[in-house]
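Example 262.
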Amino acid sequence: MRTCSADAVSLTLRVAVSRSTALAAALGLLLTSALCPAHTSAGDVASDTVSARMVLRAVNSRDAYLPDQIDFINSLLRFSRTVTVLSEVEEGPLFDPDTQEIWMPGSFADVIASYFSDDETAPIADIYLHTLVHEVGHVLFSQYDLPLLAREEDAADALASVLLLEYVENGADVVLNAADMFGRESEHTDDYEEADFWSEHSLDIQRYYTTLCHVYGSDPEVHGHLVNDDTGLSEARAENCEYEYQRIRRAWLELLRPYLKR
Ligand SMILES: [Zn+2]
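Predicted structure in complex with zinc ion:
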């Protein structure tokens, strides 16, 4: 399997920026500023004794922020095997444990935009980051054979909530935008089919409420406004969110301790 070196990754980043659309550049800039406190350059990462890392094979103008997001993930986590992120693919987002590839198709940006009124307001970068960290959950389960006490998809969602809320400056906004996307996907579901219930994923509407609950539970004082009729997060549900979030936070941070760089 072909992988890129650290230099190749940094080269890809430069090409990506020069080819990016105004929207992608703006979103990328926003995200870069949010990630900057935690940002580690490709050079720093290359000096690590561990050579396994996440690399990007290609990038297109619709997902020009992937290089920064991958830098963030490399600055945070140790991998035991190199993981390759592919954007020039048709299927996904998905993780293939056999090839250790994450497929993040460029068309995913269009799918996200289609759920929002227009391209300008679609939080494409945030949803890419949430999705990428969710896929990283599958990578970690696979590489370290981590014990799972619930469905893997729910665990990956919980891991995305914890890593984004704990390590990204505007992580709550990122996670809320992901919840918003789940809610919008749910609204587009006219009829549930049998497959929705046997799917390994929870229903989109469940992912919406659970994700909202994580954000609220991470700091009920700051996020008290999330409990209202508009969001649908009831006081009865919210009551347990702080406990739930603390449980997943402790579980993930302890389980990942050997693999976290900070
Ligand atoms: Zn998944």
